[in-house]
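Hi R.,

Here's the chain you asked about this morning:
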Amino acid sequence: METIKYIENCPQVHMGSRKYLAPNEILHLESDLNYTQIILANGKKILSSTTLKIIENRLSPFKNFVRINRQSIVNLDLVEKIENQTLFLPGERKIVFSRRMEKAWRNSGLA
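And here is the predicted structure, written out as tokens:
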């Protein structure tokens, strides 16, 4: 099964079972054992039976997705601000970088 397909010239990423989402719709992803909670920009949540690691690999062509700790991947295009080790997302969501991931992110030149 292909992991990226194009619908009306917009890339769609395979999220599990028969679900494809445009990367710009995804706010962040959270690991939940062998499941992944996908939080969309519009506030809706989708539970996928695909692991976070598999979805991370499928999102690798899109450089705006960054793993910030063991349990979270964030769409940097939708981050409101970054203070110290905390990312502030819409809807008053806060996610904290792990020390190791923050150091790698800052050294990558994306910071």
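One quick note: The helical segments are 52-58, 99-107.

Cheers,
M.
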